[in-house]
Amino acid sequence: MESISGRAVAAAGVVICSLVGCTTVTVRSPGGEPVTRTHAEFRAYGEQVFRLQNAVLDELISTAEDDTGLPVQDDPALLAAEDEIVESCRDLNEAAGLSAEGLKPGLPLQLRVMDSMPRCEASAVAVKALLDGRSGFASAVMP
Fold first, then answer.
1. Please, is 139 exposed, middle or buried when counting C-beta atoms within 10 Å of its C-beta (0-12, 13-18, 19+)?
2. Rounded mean pLDDT of the chain?
3. Which one of 31, 70, 84, 91 counts the least CB within 10 Å of its CB?
């Protein structure tokens, strides 16, 4: 007997919800716990994560050099974290780009966004912590 993948079950759930008008969506938090939200709450969460990762990337880009004079590109932890945020938020950014053009993301992209959003949020928080740590270090060693 062939087993059904979790992704196929989720896809079926989304299709059914689209047809019958479900009012909630269950996703995983960055810590892995299931979280149930209404569609409006999930949309607001998506916007919150999108804004967070955009703000963090803007801060990263504008921080070519910190107060210590050390170039950001010489920090391997920050470079790895930047790669992670770009990769983990790729689907969310693609969906946001389509929405900005007045297009609706297709079901496969919607499922990928739902699946990747906690990882995107976690990576944005991690990059923010690294950036805050760099500025905290600079203020601790600079008069």
1. exposed
2. 75
3. 31
